[in-house]
Specification:
This protein is mainly beta. The chain is 9% helix and 40% strand. The protein is built from 2 helices and 10 strands, in the order H-E-E-E-E-E-E-E-E-E-E-H. The strands form 2 sheets. The protein has a 5-stranded antiparallel sheet with strand order 1-7-4-9-2. A 5-stranded antiparallel sheet has the order 6-5-8-3-10. Strand 5 and strand 6 form a beta hairpin. Bound molecules: thymidine-5'-diphosphate. Thymidine-5'-diphosphate binds next to strand 2 and strand 3.
Amino acid sequence: MLRLEDQIHIFNFPDLGDERGNLVVVEGGIAIPFDIKRIFYIYGSDSEVVRGSHANLKSEFIMINVSGTSKVLIDNGLERRVVALDKPRMGLYLKSMVWKEMYDFSPDSVLLVLSNEHYDPGEYIRNYTDYLEMVRK
Ligand code: TYD
């Protein structure tokens, strides 16, 4: 059984800004441990909504609240942790096969997600019981 602390990492990306404002760079394979094949972003989800609720066979993710805040529940079938995404420089890295739920979105939340894989619905595990069976084998 993997330890949750080995399956996630919190990056604090450097701010290259100056008096004109902030600038944060995230280079695939340099600032983060994968080359970026996909980006998507979630906004307009209100505070009652729960998104995600899945694990991925292959995809890894970096989640950045570039505006506003949200929370991510991370679960590996044995351990659970909640991470508050509350700074635009903060990147939450999730390896594959980690269950995640995103919630408590602020009205101005823009949650940017980077991934090492193109979208493939076949690699999503959306049933928590199935997920537990897979990770507890
Ligand atoms: P979903 O996986 O439910 O989003 P979340 O986990 O963030 O709540 O995806 C919502 C819809 O968008 C669903 O029809 C699949 C589609 N989608 C893509 O086509 N490509 C993608 O990269 C993602 C993340 C979703």
